[in-house]
Amino acid sequence: MAIKVNLKVNGEDASSVVKENTLLVDFLRENLRLTGTHVGCDTSQCGACTVHMDGRAVKSCTVLAVQCEQVEISTIEGIGGADNLHPMQEAFRECHGLQCGFCTPGMIMSSIDLVRRERELDEDIIRKGLDGNICRCTGYHNIVRSVQVAAKKMRN
Amino acid sequence: MYGFKYHRPQTIEEATKIFAACEEGSYLAGGHTLLPSMKQRLAAPTDLIDLADISSMRGIREEKDCVVIGALTKHEEVASSELLHNAIPSIADLAGNIGDAQVRNRGTMGGSIANSDPAADYPSAVLGLGAVLVSDKREIEADEFFLGMFETVLEEGEILKEVRFPKPEASVYKKFPNPASRYAVVGVFVARTMGLVRVAITGAGPCVFRAREIEEILTKDFSAEAIRNVRLDADLMNDDMHASADYRANLCVVMAQRAVRELI
Ligand SMILES: Cc1cc2nc3c(=O)[nH]c(=O)nc-3n(C[C@H](O)[C@H](O)[C@H](O)COP(=O)(O)OP(=O)(O)OC[C@H]3O[C@@H](n4cnc5c(N)ncnc54)[C@H](O)[C@@H]3O)c2cc1C
Ligand code: FES
Ligand code: FES
Question: Taking the domain A2-78, which CATH number applies?
Fold first, then answer.
């Protein structure tokens, strides 16, 4: 069985007919070939699959594509490209906020939501705010720095 | 995940009607318990009935002596509610410490309560405050609602619509989170209203329960010192890879003391 879902992805109409049990992350990666969104665990733990659903960070491995009726999704591909990096991407690059880069798309999507959500951004708040994203390389210090640097730019 | 049919009713009546006609239907709220269980094939409903469009089940409003929260209200909406920060800040605080930011952006209060996970946070506020649970059929007292692990008095197809939380004079929730999942190893909710104290504990047993012994002592003498020597029965506690039963029994008292200290 399949069903029509009407949604936008990165500002463009991406309405499609999908199987009911298609996960949002699989829809993005397989149907739309937006492979910047990663699957680290598929058990809702790691945050590598984080995208924005109507502006809020969610784990796309734990959302069905059919739940996205009339929803706007944005992915790492939608926030900036090689020639026009988003301030958060720029800050991760500048501050060495990544090593292997596997967690990075999810980390960046979560961090952008964090800057939107929290007025104060001290180290504790950033660490707690990124609780849902796991990184096995960096030890998090440089990720915290990246978010602090990006937050300043985003707010100016 | 096995296949299923997907429905998107606009009203509660429509939802219950669809449920009644399905072979093995399941309501879908935030999906942050149900979808992981379906991936593991612990649940395999034939039909998912998504409640997302039923707007009457969403939102937070204040009535004379209580705050009413719609079952579909997301953890993040509760955590950031100005109204709750003024009326019952312990609930906003509880919701703000569930899982992580992404989980809070999807998970709903009703899903958490209907599911009665032994380690879920919300049930402690429901029982600790003596809330009233409103379904499509009836009103249920918190003391009657939770039956056991993943078990409540909700019948097949019954929908939890909203929860009425009475405003206490003071209340607080103290959780000892599992460092990986942030579910409660033990969470203690303490509420005080007109001299009466209620203490509800989650994470420790098969489902949330009231610690009557601690309540009685605190009603007479509201101090952390007064409950220091209470020993809860370890035979009633969960024992798993995260914590032994003895450890949990002790932790209940320690967390209750921390809660009391914060309220004094
Ligand atoms: C990584 C992770 C960490 C988490 N950490 C915590 C934590 O620290 N503390 C905590 O308490 N929880 C935690 N959770 C669980 C989370 O809070 C869930 O969102 C919640 O328990 C279920 O709510 P839901 O809206 O997602 O429900 P769903 O998954 O959609 O549904 C759960 C069950 O309830 C039923 N149901 C849903 N709504 C209703 C209703 N209105 N009436 C009748 N039945 C209904 C469904 O049919 C289903 O059986 C975590 C989850 C994840 C994935
Ligand atoms: S892949 Fe979604 S949380 Fe890990
Ligand atoms: S940079 Fe390798 S997992 Fe984070």
Answer: 3.10.20.30
Report d(CA A49, CA A108) in Å as an integer: 11
Tell me the CATH architecture of domain A87-155.
Answer: Orthogonal Bundle (1.10)
Inter-chain residue contact B6 with A20, CB threshold 8 Å: yes
Q: Which residue of B has its CA nearest to A111?
A: B101
As a residue count, chain B comes to: 264
Find how far residue B8's CA is from the centre of its chain: 25
What residue in B sits closest to A2 (Cα-Cα)? Answer: B5
CB contact (8 A) between residue A131 and residue B100? yes
Q: Which residue of A has its CA nearest to B102?
A: A58
pLDDT value of residue B195: 85
Residues of chain B with Cβ-Cβ distance to A23 below 8 Å are: 1
Residue B201 has pLDDT above 90, yes or no: yes
- Average pLDDT, stretch B160-176? 98
Q: Which of B27, B91, B116, B242 to mutate to test the pocket of ligand 1 (most atoms within 8 A of CB)?
A: B27
Cβ contacts of A77 within 8 Å, gap of 6 or more: A10, A34, A36
- For residue B5, list its beta bridge partners: B47
Over 90: is that where the pLDDT of B179 sits?
no
Please check whether residue A49 is in contact with residue A106, taking contact to mean a CB–CB distance below 8 angstroms: yes
| HEC assignment per residue over B129-140 | HCCEEEECCCEE
* Among the bound ligands, the one closest to the CA of A96: 3
Domain residue ranges in chain A: 2-78, 87-155
* Chain B hits for A42, Cβ within 8 Å: 39
The confidence score (pLDDT) of residue B180 equals: 85
Residue ranges and CATH numbers for the domains of chain B are: 5-50 (3.30.43.10), 57-263 (3.30.465.10)
CB B178 within 8 A of CB B242: yes
Sequence-distant (6+) residues with CB within 8 A of B54 are B9, B10, B11, B12, B15, B72
- Cβ-based contacts of B35 with chain A (< 8 Å): 62-64
Closest listed residue to residue B106, CA positions, set A69, A44, A30: A44
Window B:51-90, CB contacts with A under 8 Å? 52, 76
